[in-house]
Amino acid sequence: MSLIVALDSPDREFGSLVEDLCDIVDGFKLGLPLLMGRGVDYAARLRSRCNRGLWIADLKLADIGHVMKLTTSLVVEHVDAVIAHGFVGIQGALGELKEFLNSLGKKLVVVASMSHPGAREVYDKALPLILNVIGELEPWGIVAPATRPQVITSIRERLGDSVTILSPGVGAQGAEPGAAICAGADYEIVGRLITSSNDPRAAALAVKDAQKQRLQACKRGA
Amino acid sequence: MSLIVALDSPDREFGSLVEDLCDIVDGFKLGLPLLMGRGVDYAARLRSRCNRGLWIADLKLADIGHVMKLTTSLVVEHVDAVIAHGFVGIQGALGELKEFLNSLGKKLVVVASMSHPGAREVYDKALPLILNVIGELEPWGIVAPATRPQVITSIRERLGDSVTILSPGVGAQGAEPGAAICAGADYEIVGRLITSSNDPRAAALAVKDAQKQRLQACKRGA
């Protein structure tokens, strides 16, 4: 099973949580509020507590290339991947960012779709255009919400097996563990369901267990 | 004339520049690289050098409401306005952010259109949907690029006089001072043309002069 834990709150000390979860999860996603509130050096301090797995800076970048590279350069040495929005396009934007990340041996992850109801107002209607961008850009990974597994399935069909699909929205936002993986995602991203638990390690183990059961059920169904 | 200076680089000390420009510009826009690299307290330190005009945090927010509010809360006490993307829609996103900013007496500025060539790939094609979002949301201000004055004019026609239009793209990105104001913008945002000058005050005065001349010419033409 593939589980990444989202750390967003700028008011919490996550060091011992990271250490507790290190051997049972596949990575950590650091949110913009955390990185801006605690400072970018905090990413290095957290990583020193667990130097394995995939570390992702969830900057949700959506600017011209020059500014996205400036922002990325502040944190990139402490992470393996950076998240940007597909809607800003390639020319003068994601193309420059991908080249910059490639030169550093780092991964680009592009948001294809979002999980909140407002995603229906613009994002969803632009999905075919965003998939064109992703198809041409060929980033290492994309983000698509666990709350809407049919979007994951259609993206997997469209983009094939070479792209890594990361799927937030499990837990607090309503999706059940395993549903996104059943639909074709590679990683499920879980935040508050684990980080707000009194026993984050037990909560993470329960998520992994639920993922396993769900995947067995959907494999039987297939 | 209406001139806002963009401060983006995280590697520069902008204190004396802010003081030098304070009495001749209408405000400052603080970029995400600056805020993340220098820490949010830096916004307070800069503002203490010029406690007038409009101070804007250009966070280019594009996330669910919960995360946008967390990020905004880190810097909002030091600024008058915050920039977010129209692309993320209202429900569970910009609606929550606007309510949060209203409760603090702060302004929401929504990106309607961008200046780089890649904006043609997705953003431009989604413009009618984004204008629906803006029309319903009624933010204090919107962002539309000086590099494409016809977009500014059509947005002004569509949204009327009540919305404030802020226009980046003057200088390094190619638009001439005054062109966006002629097209209907309220403020032009200028970065490197002023901040990279050996004499930023002289450069800002030259921009204001060029704005004035351009506006006189376009009024004569109208």
Automatic annotation (TrEMBL), chains A, B:
Substrate binds at D8, K29, S115, G191, R192. The active site is at D58 (for ompdecase activity), K60 (for ompdecase activity), D63 (for ompdecase activity). Pathway: Pyrimidine metabolism; UMP biosynthesis via de novo pathway; UMP from orotate: step 2/2. GO terms for biological process: 'de novo' pyrimidine nucleobase biosynthetic process; 'de novo' UMP biosynthetic process. GO terms for molecular function: orotidine-5'-phosphate decarboxylase activity. Pfam families: OMPdecase. GO terms for cellular component: cytosol. Keywords: Decarboxylase, Lyase, Pyrimidine biosynthesis. It is an enzyme of class 4 (lyase). InterPro entries: Aldolase_TIM (IPR013785), OMPdecase (IPR014732), OMPdeCOase_dom (IPR001754), RibuloseP-bd_barrel (IPR011060). Its EC number is 4.1.1.23. Residues 2-207 form the Orotidine 5'-phosphate decarboxylase domain. This is Orotidine 5'-phosphate decarboxylase. It comes from Pyrodictium delaneyi. The lineage of its organism: Archaea, Thermoproteota, Thermoprotei, Desulfurococcales, Pyrodictiaceae.
